[in-house]
Amino acid sequence: MPDGLVTHPSAHSVAETMDRLAAAVVARGMTVFVRVDHGTAATEAGMDLRPTELLVFGQAKGGTPLMQASQTAGIDLPLKALCWADEAGVVRLGYNDPLWIARRHDAGDAAAASVRAMGAMLEAVSGEACRP
Fold this sequence. Notes:
alpha+beta; TT1751-like_sf; DUF302 domain-containing protein; single chain; 5 helices; 5-stranded antiparallel beta sheet; DUF302
């Protein structure tokens, strides 16, 4: 897997995994900004792509401390999660590790508590989305 990418297998289809993830995000008071269905877009363009969806979500209280520490972190915020069916048909959910984002932008210790909270939240909502 690419550097900084955390992945989890899902017991559900891509669409159901993303429905469950969106519900878990909203239940925690975050905003879902956009959901992109890359697979459908590819089909509409006359191309093949296994099911692939992206969810963009977040909350200013979570991401702002990281951007205050290093404003360039805004390129990686709001948070994103990608769900796809791999070559073997296994559905996977992945996201950028907030620790990796903080290191990428040399955020230092100023946003450490926020980064840890983001990581814990991502693990929790991923678990809700992926487990049976």
